[in-house]
Amino acid sequence: MSWLNFLQDPNTRWILLATTLLGLSSGVIGCFAYLRKQSLIGDALSHAALPGVCFVFIITGSKSILLFLTGALIAGILATLLIGYITRHTRISQDAALGITLSFFFGIGIVLLTQIQHSDAGNQSGLDKFLFGQAASMIQDDVITMIVISAILVSVCALFFKEFKLLSFDPGFAKGIGLPVVILDQLIMLLIVIAVVVGLQAVGVVLMAALLITPAVAARYWTEKLHVMIMISGMFGVLSGVMGTLLSTVVKNMPTGPLIVLSATILFITSMLFAPKRGLVARALLRASVKNKIRVKETGEGASL
What we know:
It contains 15 helices and no strands. The protein is mostly helical. The protein folds into two domains: 263 residues, ABC transporter involved in vitamin B12 uptake, BtuC, CATH 1.10.3470; 30 residues. The longest helix has 26 residues. The protein is globular, with a radius of gyration of 22 Å.
């Protein structure tokens, strides 16, 4: 059966639309996280979201995806504030603060998840799906939520593009000209939190960080301009979502989330090897060309002597 036949299924179309939007928003906001050397922030925040989901289920007993996302968002914001506090008020570096926060929140999440699974409602909770994602469980309401949130994320990035650009490359100058650097920094972190939370159901806690950073890293090989990098990263995110979803549809019993991440990794490897200026192949050819010119020049000079 062809992919076009699979796309006649309404549920498949909704999942494809959701993963496409997830890839787009993750690719766009991931550029700023990557350029600001915060590649691990997505990993920390995605792991931090797990206890938020568990707390919501314990309190409400509901499996509402909107409530789950609300709990994950609150936990992500708390993790962001904790990372910022540790970085600003101690001598601990940001990467160490990220590691501490990731381990602490994820440990709490696993403890709560274990407790829930051993309770009477454990078999009905389905919270373990947030570890690795389950895109097939998404319904129309989930996709509509992702459409709205993805549109907000991309719109905010476009609206504050100049400020985010300056903050990413020269935060000292941004502070010197009077920009609210702390507020902008927290805004970027909030956008990352929202992007991570939205992707939990499709990709899961473990793999969401990869979807956030891999398209941005791949896009960096193709350009030196930030606005072009953001567009390419968004495109790579979209392609990853499409490729992963279609592969999981065609091949039976294959999870969508990991296939999306693997698709993004394939795009990264392709970029690393074959990008026209920064790719390994292009650099190898350039080195060979330079060596050849030097050898020809030395040969010519030797002959003239």
